Each structure stands twice: as C-alpha cells, then as structure tokens.
Sequence to fold (669 residues):
Amino acid sequence: MKGFIYQLKNIRRDKLCIVSFLLPVLAGFAVSLLSGVNFSSLSETIFYVMEDDLPDECTEWLQTIGTVTAFPDIASLKDAVNNPATQAIGVLKDEGGIRTLLSGDELQIYTVTGNTLPQLYAERNNFAAAQVSITPVAENRDALKSLLIAITMITAMFMGCTFNAMSIIGEKEDGISFINEILPMTKAEYIAQKITLGFIGGVISTLLTAAICIRVSVNQILPFLLLIVLSAFVAALAGLFTGKLSGGLMTGIVCIKAVMILFLAPPVLLYLTVPPGSFMHSLSCLLPSGATFYGLMDLLNGQTQGIETNIIVLSAHCILWLLLFFAAERSKAGAGSAK
Amino acid sequence: MWREFFALLKKDFKLMLSGRFFLLMTGSLILYSCYINFIYAGLDQNIYPVYLYDPLCVHNETSSELIKVESSEELQAQTGDGYAVGIDVSGKTPDISMISSGISSIDQYRAAYAMSLLSSKNHTAAEIIGTDNREMKSRREITCELLFFELAAVGFLGIASVLFKEKQMGIIRVHGVLPVGKTVFILSKLLLFLICDLVFSLLLTVINLGVSEGFAVLPYILLQTGILSLIMALTGFSCAILLRDFKQFSLLYLVLAIFITTPVFLAGQTGTARGWINYHPMYHLFMAMKNAYRGIPSENGIYYAICGLTIVLLSGLVRRTLIREMAKEG
Fold:
C-alpha cells in the first residue's frame, strides 16, 4: 500500500500524465458535441441526380432507398461521382427509365447497386406484390457516431497501456529502475502497483468518457462495467509488456504506436466490412480490443445477446496475458540467475 | 561556413542514428506497407447475400446470385445477421424476411434487390466514368493518410527526440559559445529531417502504389511532403525547446494526434462538417496531399503563399526561441 501511495505521488507531480488520462474524456466531449452532424446519411446509398432531369416519381422512389442530391449540370455531377471521398451513384434519365454512372472505384456493394438500379426501377411495381417482413432492432440513426464513441472508449481504456509503458520507460531512462532493484520491494509488488495504477486510470478515464457520450439502461450496467474493467486490466498488462520490451523512449513510442494500431484498426475495419458471424469476424476476437469493441457496439446498438461471449473472451485474454507475463518474468529471472 | 555546416550535419546524423530514428522510420515503413498490402487493399464490402427457400421449385429461372436453402429454419438461421435477406416462396406470394439494419432506406433497398434476383434478367452495366479501380483508390487513400500522419505527428516527434538528447547532453549550452551561427544549427537539422521525410514519402508511395502509378504522382507528393515536413519540423523544434522534457513533449504529441489529425481525417474521408473544417489549417495541407495522390496539383496560389509565410514565420520563431534558450543555459 505504501508503495502504491509513492506511485500516486509520482503521478501527482507529473500533471501532464493526468492530462493524458483526460484526453479521451475531451475527445468524448467533442464526439457528443457532433450531434448536429447527421452521421446516418453516411451509411445510406447516395444518389446524385441532375436538376429537372428525372421525373418526380423516380426521385421519390430513389429517396425511399437512399439520399438524393441534385446538381445543376452534368459536369458537376460527374465530378461529384468521381470524387474518391464518396461512393455515390449518378442517376440520369434514359429512354423509359434510368441509367447510372459509377466512377469505377466503388466497393462491390455500390457497384452492384449501380448496375441493378435501372432494373429495380423498372420492376418497382412487381415489388409491391411481395410481402416484406422486417424484424426491427433498436433504431440506430447514428451508426457512425456509435462507431466514434466506441473508438473513443477503447482509446480511453488504452490510456492505461500508454501510461504504464511511458512510466516504465521513464523509470528506465532516469535510472529509477536500478534503484527499484535495491529497494525492499518484491517484483510482484512492483508489478501489482503498476497494473493497479494503469488499471484505475483506464477505468476512471473510460467511465468519465462513457458518462459524457452514452446512456446505458439498467440491465446493461453490469455487462458494461465488466467490459470496462476487463479491458482496462488487459490494457494495463499490455502497457507492462510494452514498457519491459522497449529500450528507450523512441522505441517505446514505436511499440505504443504499433500496439495502438493493432488494438484499434482491425476491429473497426472488420466491423465495417465483414458481416457479423463470419470467420473473419470471429478472428478479430484474437485481439482483446476486438471483444471490447464488439461488446461496446452491441451495447450502443441496444443488443445484449452476444455480450456474454465478449465478456468470456475478454476474461480469457486477461488470464492468458497474465500467465504470459509471469512466464516471461520467470524465464528472465531464470536467465539472470544462470548468469 | 560549409565546413561547420557539414560537421553539424554529421553530428545530427549520428544523433539520429543513436536515437534509433531510422529504425523508427524503417519500422513504420514496414508496418504501414504490410497493413496496406495485406489488409487494407483487399478490403471490400460485398452485396447482401440473398437466400431462397423454394420447396416447390416454382422459380427455376432465378439469378445465380441466389443461394438456395432446404428449410425455412435454415432460411431463418442464415438471415439472422442484419445483413442477409431471405425469400420464402413456399406460399402464394413471395415473403421477403430480414433483420433490420437500423436504417429504413437500406432495408427498403435490400428488399427490392432481393426481389430483383427472382428473375434471371441480365442487368445493364452502369457507365464507368473514372479511371481508378477500387484497389488503387484504396491504396491511394490509405497511403496518403498514413504519410500525412507520419509527417504531421511522427516527424514532429523525431526532431524533438534529437533536440531533447542534445539538451540532456548539454550540446545546446556548448553551441552558445561556439563560433557557429544559429541559422546553421537550425538548417542542419531541418535539412536532414527534410531528406528523411522525402525518402520516406518516395518509398511509401512507390511500394504501395506501384512503380508506374507511384512515379506518375511523385512530383506533386514530394512538393506537399516538403511543405508539411518543414512546417512540422519547425513546430516540433520550437515546442522541444520550450518544453521541459521529452515525456511532456510526447503528451503534446498525443494531443496533436487526437485533436489535430483525427478531425482532419474524419472530414477528409466523410465530407461531413465542411463549414468548420475550413478553418482548420491542417485540413488544407491534408487535402493538398490527397489531391497530390490523385495526380491533381494544387493550383491555388494563396495556399502556397500562406505555406511559405508560415515557414518563414516559424523559422523566425525557432531562431528567437533558440537564442533565448542558449542565453538561459548561460
């Protein structure tokens, strides 16, 4: 306990360290301020049309399956379709129907949409003969906002990793690690202190971020807290690994950067591109952040079916990483005594 | 003067070498290239899979895209992911079932698309008006983003690591009494980092865009790299002199990475919030880099004038800060 108080005193002197834990909170605040931006329109199919070109009936039909933006002339429409930042489909009037324009660099889903749209329009009345039953899920008008919140929350949990890694590297650079070796403190005590600090920091940072960005219902509180606690623990452990492996500040930053990319990029990309339940989707659970990310997205979308699986996966990660850390420490100690 | 300049260059190069700066750049280059080639370039989003349950074999001439299932239970199981669509034609009218995606227009389109697959008509292909394919577009976009991040955030960090090492070793204090101009001291560092950034841009572009595509856009990219590299190195230089230690600086770097580069990526990628982002200076640098990757040179004279003025002002600021720091060091 005394050692832990010393560690806390050490942080208190370093005000910027505390600021680093508050960074995700500020990011969360910025995300919640973006409520004025209609993110849901980004998930919809975008159709670009020319003013006074398509019949009203066609424009109305397009509005039922996506968002429609009108351009004054064909040149500006083609420029907009060609803009690499969009996946928009150009729609023009054709003999008795419509024809479509694509830039050719779209994802397969939009290429198929562009190719099939004239047929869908021609057969729109056949569609009325079918019976459509859509099982509703919690309305999610802001899919991208949920995504940004989940990314901010994972960053907050990750702060424990950054903090622990920077703290250990700083101790190495200042020579404190040598002093630690002669202090009346066991290795296990030192590890426990470091994990606790990163863990508590990560949990507080995530809870503050969550308080700003999201509202959870009563039955979601327990799984949500479990997700935060387990993820912050794994992140604190990952920080210990990173700190131990890094020789200096520069290599430490490279390692933190690599871990950060590895933690954030695969779950987000797989979430955006791979349908749930697929093999690739399951593969993302090999990373602790994968289970956290999918758990958070489920909670944000009002689903709780898969949350138990994510918590089990995260618990398995906690045990596995801890065992790995102890095994690494033991082999290092063994190598040291052999010398 | 030239002898001193080359001596300083040699010293800075050795410092960068011992600070593992080249290792950081090589590591980043390998990491980014592996990510682009093995993960990002292959990413795609497939059209909704459509499953058909047709026990009476009523629909024989359907699209090849339809996946037939043997029972209504199987149909339900396959369409439970909020993405796939099921068609049950065991009754009088086709029954299209799906779990909602959460956005009604997307659900409407999914249903209409599924219905269209019941006929085997060939679709009329859309007119292609662009020159890139999906993979090349992805490569251009992600390479541009990673290069921008590397130059904006990591370039900023690199020069600071060298300066902090010099501070620690007392080199800044020694320079205060050496007969070497302050401008030469600044120039030697800037030149080395500029060369490193240009080489990094060249390699990242050629490795990930390919030789012919890469060299076609390289002149525009190198110009934008030069501008961004100088601005970031000068900013990093002044921050490194003003801040107490590298740990504080690395936290400033975190602020820069989260609050300066993230909104730029978000706005550049999604086209949202166009109004406010125009006041973000980095957004214009990012868009110029993005256009360079598309082979479009920035013809805006005001942009280059502002960039030039910023570099001149930052250089002046760095020189003043350095003189003040040397005076403080005694």
